[in-house]
Amino acid sequence: MPDRKSSLEEGGGDRSTASRDARVFLPHADSGQLKSLYRSKTRAKLPIPLKAFVLAGGAGTRLSPLTSYVPKGMIPIAGKPFIDYVISYLANHGIRNIIMLLSDEDSEVYRNHLDDGSKYGVNIGYSISPRTGTANALKEASGHIDSTFLVYYGDILTSLDLTGMIQFHREKKATCTVALSTGVRIDYGVGRVDKDGRIEYFEEKPVIKEYPVSIGVCLCEPSVVKYCSSGSDIAANVIPTLVAKGERVYGYLTPEPHHDIGSFKQLDEVKKILKTQSKNQTKNASKQD
Fold first, then answer.
1. Using CA atoms, how far apart are residues 199 and 197, in angstroms rounded to an integer?
2. Residue 261: which residues within 8 A CB-CB, separation 6 or more?
3. Domains of the chain
4. CA distance 52 to 26
5. Least enclosed by CB within 10 Å: which of 72, 82, 196, 258?
6. Which pLDDT tens digit goes with each residue over 23-48?
7. Whole-model pTM above 0.85?
8. Do residues 75 and 83 lie in contact, with contact meaning Cβ atoms separated by under 8 Å?
9. DSSP letters of 2-34?
């Protein structure tokens, strides 16, 4: 791990006020646009003045021993690290300012690869803190939260219409908007029984639209940070607390499924999807030529 001075120079910006256990490096000024594997149905034509905080500091224990050698988000898929697809997705929706929320254990690998983001046409900064929960990782970077911001779990891949979600969040004047998919099949068979124990309904691995699945993407207002604390999780603790406190929490429904790389099974599924799409893009490009 490089010392703080060299980290600041490589990160490309000024250091903010942060806790003694966290280090924050700001991105450069705004720059160009990056084409993405995924395209929005309401694609943003201009950069959106909205920061994205990408959670990528987890240990990835379910992918051990692979993650003992490479951080989860840096696992190569279809010729490039997974995190590249995340950056491309955000850039395609007009988001140019991205802050990576990392841990000491993996920050150097990410920063060596992503640098300041200029090669992607975006601005990438870094907040480095101990692994004490996703909510605390966000809190440690709160000095850079001054308006609506996006939280994106860095191990997921989605074709969610993020531009549409941003519009929805603003229209609802929401404190927090959570992306929820109505197109995800659960991994188990489910049943419904009557009071006598007789099965009225049974289906194997259904899509239950009445209970949409969280994608791992949410839009938040700065007031959300006050609910963040050490040892807590955004999805497991912060969002339920917001709901319980009566805050304006909305769900942005989408039929689009999502994929994460949290396990070897899921990683293999994502590899197949991206390889197939990469081949299709190559074929289409050849036809156009």
1. 6
2. 63, 72, 75, 77, 82, 155, 156, 157, 267, 270
3. 4-182+211-288 (3.90.550.10)
4. 13
5. 196
6. 665 554 433 332 233 334 444 445 67
7. no
8. no
9. --HHHHHHHHTS-B----TT-EEE---S-----
